[in-house]
Amino acid sequence: MEIASPELISKYESVIGLEVHVQLSTRTKIFCGCPTSFGAAPNSNVCPVCCGLPGALPVLSRQAVELAIRGALALNCEIRPVSVFARKNYFYPDSPKGYQISQFDLPFAEWGYVDVVVNGEAKRIKVTRVHMEDDAGKSLHEGFRDSAKYTYVDLNRSGTPLIEIVSEPDMRSSDEAFAYLTELKQSIQFVEASTCDMEKGHLRCDANVSVRPWGQQELGTKVEIKNLNSFRFLREAIDYEIARQVGVIESGGKIHQETRLFNPDLGITVGMRSKEQAHDYRYFPEPDLAPLKIGDKWLTSIKSTMPELPAIRRARFATEFGLKEYDAQVLTANRPLADYFEAVAKVAGDPKIAANWVMGDLAALLKTSNKDIENSPVSAQHLGELVALIVKGELTGKLAKEVLPKMFESGDPAAVIVEREGLKTISDTGELERMIDEIIAANPKQVTEYRSGKVTLMGFFVGQVMKNSRGQANPAVVNDLVKAKLG
Ligand code: ADP
Ligand code: MG
Ligand code: ZN
Prior knowledge:
This protein is α+β, with helices and mostly antiparallel strands. It has helices at about 5-10, 60-75, 175-190, 230-250, 295-305, 310-320, 325-330, 335-350, 350-370, 380-390, 395-410, 415-420, 430-440, 445-450, 460-470, 475-485; strands at about 10-25, 80, 80-85, 85-90, 100-105, 110-120, 120-135, 140, 150-155, 160-165, 205-215, 225-230, 260-265, 270-275, 285, 290-295.
């Protein structure tokens, strides 16, 4: 079997659907009161319920349901008024109940969508369903694979609340899958349903991939790729899998439905189990939990606390503030940043200049000091005031660049630093005229040249004034005055 060349690949259309697991940001587990805190000593956050001891009964967490609903609403889903938990039966050492509590034919949310823009083209990816489930524990192997001597089981994660988000097979390239997952993550973070921290496993993605000759209606046989725990791996795994499938078909073979694992070191996918070996989960309604009823009143109250979603906010930043699409995208990357920028813009009185300062000088200072916007030593109010000084012509942009690091260091407002260091812009014409007279007197040669037509020397005179005033002269005023004096 050969990996197909780009030329062969272009004869096929690829089809991708994603299944994404998101860990909800609850303090406790979904069916018991054990904490969900990350990094606790193994098997310390456990009780009879999440250990799966016989006779222990689950009690559904209200907070988990609320966060699940927020997550589903962030993906524009409809919420089913009555949904049902189901047992998904399988044996695995880190799942002591012998089954997972999930939802099957009646999930709590359906009919959603995520809008993306890929290569300048807008596209809507449909979300089939979102359901709630509990997470399994973790197996830790000492040694590797065949050489493993011991396997340890840590049940701290067992019973952690998850939502699984299943998309329609609507994506046609790894770029679209990348864009979908990016937008999904951002939306869920905005509504604070999850941190979506991939490094901690709070966002996990499986990709289903198939190919078909262009024009064919029927979908090709899909392969599911597990273990995609970064955006880069998602892209690499999909691209590899497309090339592999086309290679198989072009050399006369057939794609078999199977689950494959992505090996990030080799950049390839490897067969894990075929459809024949697939589980029969024997789903049935969970007898220990009543159907979940989400009434209008509850739903309305959750909806009333939903923030503006990132796509909408991005569009508003572009229309209301006149920001470029790219800038609007950067400034809505996360909610704290978007909130910060909006607060700066309001105080500054000029959103575009405010955007430049947030994305430019402030971002650079945060980066070098390894800080997030949430704990910026310069508050949005203070940065807004600094920008307002520039907008009002009371501080030159150049000097503001010196003021900001001092604000960052001291936490003092701009006005205090400007006052202390005497940096205020000089707009007083009397004072500026005196300076200009001195410069004219000291540079007779340039004056003569200017008057005989070398008008480019204007820049020389203005530059001298700026220099003598240590950058504090109001450049616009200086310009006018120099012009008038040299006549
Ligand atoms: P299964 O029952 O095997 O889990 P589903 O129908 O639930 O299959 O689909 C799981 C995921 O696979 C969904 O995200 C769906 O969009 C995607 N999918 C289904 N068929 C295909 C296909 N032919 N090619 C690519 N993705 C597909
Ligand atoms: Mg599935
Ligand atoms: Zn527990």
